[in-house]
Amino acid sequence: MAQRKLNCLYLIVLPLLANLPARAQITEVAAPPQTVNIHVDTAQVASYRIPRTIFGTFLEPIGNSTYNGLWAEILMNPSLEENLGNSDYVANMVREEPQLRRASQFALPLPWEPLDYAQENRYEPHWGDAVNSWRSLEIMGVPGQPTGIRQKVYLPVRRVLTYNGSLYAKHLSGPAEMTIELRKRNSTEILAQAQVTAAGADWENVKFSLTLPAGKLQPLEPADFVIEVSGDERVDVDNILLFPADAIEGLDPDAVKMAKEMHTPLVRFGGNFTSAYHWRDGIGPQEKRVSMQNIAWGIPEYNTFGTDEFLRFTNLIGAEPQIALNLGSGTPEEAAAWVKYADDRFERRHSGLLWELGNELWGKGNLGWPTLEQLPGRTLEFSQAVRQVDSSARLIATGQDPDSFHDWNAAQLTLPAHSFDYLSAHFVVTTDRTRIQNPSADFIAQATFALSVGLGRKLREAQEQIDAAPAFAKQAHIALTEWLFLSGRRDAPSCVNMGGALATASFLQMLMKNADIVFISDMTGLMDFGGIAKKRGQVFAAPSYYAFQMYAGADASRPVAITTDAGSYNVHDGITRLPDIDDVPYLDTFAALNESGDTLTLFIINRHLTRDLDAEIGTQGFRPQPLVAVQSIAAGSLFDGNSEEDPLHVVSAASSARAENDRIRYVFPHESVTLLTLKRR
Prior knowledge:
Blueprint: H1 2-18, E1 26-30, E2 36-45, E3 56-59, H2 66-70, H3 87-96, H4 100-105, E4 113-114, E5 123-127, E6 135-140, E7 147-153, E8 162-173, E9 177-184, E10 190-197, E11 204-211, E12 223-229, E13 234-244, H5 253-261, E14 266-269, E15 292-294, E16 299-301, H6 307-317, E17 320-324, H7 332-345, E18 354-357, H8 375-389, E19 394-397, H9 406-412, E20 422-430, H10 441-467, E21 477-486, H11 498-513, E22 518-524, E23 532-535, E24 538-541, H12 543-552, E25 558-564, E26 568-571, E27 581-585, E28 587-593, E29 599-606, E30 613-620, E31 627-633, E32 653-660, E33 663-668, E34 672-679
Parallel strand pairs: 2-30, 3-14, 3-22, 14-17, 17-18, 18-19, 19-20, 20-21, 21-22
Antiparallel strand pairs: 1-26, 2-25, 4-7, 5-6, 6-13, 7-12, 8-11, 8-13, 9-10, 9-12, 15-16, 23-24, 25-28, 26-27, 28-29, 29-34, 30-33, 31-32, 31-34, 32-33
Helix pairs in contact: 7-8, 10-11, 11-12
């Protein structure tokens, strides 16, 4: 009877509970007025300058950032090795190209394929007698039948038609001629061809050049790179390279150009790979650099992009290097030698470069991670080793993320003064991970755009902890050496869409507001993620790139006071990293003068999802010229992005506005980023 009464009670109460109003996850504190007022007072200048180094970027061998990205080499696995990738890497490769499963059955190193699958076993790997790394490959010709190996490639034919290459060959028997070709994919149609001869019994370096006829291969269309032997020839081959003729010392010229136009003053070479990276593997003659597995990411590491190539790249784009040292499997002596090597070779030839003492040492995914008890000693040991070879080196110790920093950073702050100059923090956020279940796309967007507001407050707390340590008070500051917005949902802000561009602008705006405590910051990444991408031979940029470019390229260093009445909202149970954030302004505003005081830049982000905000802007102490330059980025949807097929779908646009009677009227589109540049009259 009691159970029946309880069941009846459930039947009565549950429908009532279902009808109760849920806790509002987004609460509007104040709606924007019909006309928003923005007031700038240039007489109120902040006590700090905005350091250029908050516009740093990040480069790590992950995905297609270096290989298949910045590095212009077209072929994968050029030294014909095995086990360069983990099981996930191989599984993904075979899923994308199922025929590679059969190629592997013929002892071919992936992603190489036979020229003719019907010939089956005509290949033998040779171990221990290789020009590069551990393996070479013998190709056994079949009289009267084309025999060889091939690899699917994408060529930047919209930019260049000539491709230069080389390979090492050792003649074993039969004829001594090989044919190098570019063919239509899975076809006998030859697009370009070169004949080479290698008759010696020892390894011989053979060079070749291939020029495609104009229009024969379309952009984004795959081709086959082919090595074909003659008759019953048997030849051992190794270290097969192919570069576009316009490569800049091995670098992709499109990627270099876009990186330079990004205006980044600092490039970080680091990441999870750091804890297993030994810098000497990436120096010296390239044909002697050993291919191996990138332990952090389970992908090939060819070591052809090493310290010299990285330093050359930073010089080409006018940036300073920032390098993370190996505090996982490395030694202090190895770190000190790397510092000296880089100091001696950086073209600007000065000491005082920026070095990180490890990367995310708190993460067990990093090789050789220290316990909390081991952390200070290891940091100090490497710090002292670096200071001995370069007393002016600037050091970043590994700190914990801003939402969980206290205990880890406290351990680092027990070290003696001058052990480091900065404590790092990372903020790589998955935006669709929220406290509430099944969040709407609108909720995720509003919570994402609020993150920078909450993060700025957390960074203040982290700096207060640093300042409370007597050895580091006013001496050490924060370096946000990785930050990025990711999502597993297409309808959420991420680095590849317009929502990510708005989140990027919000983040940079937060950095400028907190540049008195954050001196260094690196967006993830210069290549891939939020920056430049390369797919199927086409280089293009994510929408976040254009937002970053606008901010990093602005002539603005002296913050001035700016106020607005545009309204705000609160977020509750939002993104798990920072779920509760109050007082998020719909119109995020920032203003700064340049050093000479003749230029005033207004940075305006409209976070409102539906309302274009009509604003009247007044400037006190600064009479603008009538013509105001405008840069903006907006899209039809927050989830619009760029691709190799449509590389310029979301970009920044230039326009202008008018200043009349020292006032500016401007409508800021919903979900947009806008920069107004005023010149003093």
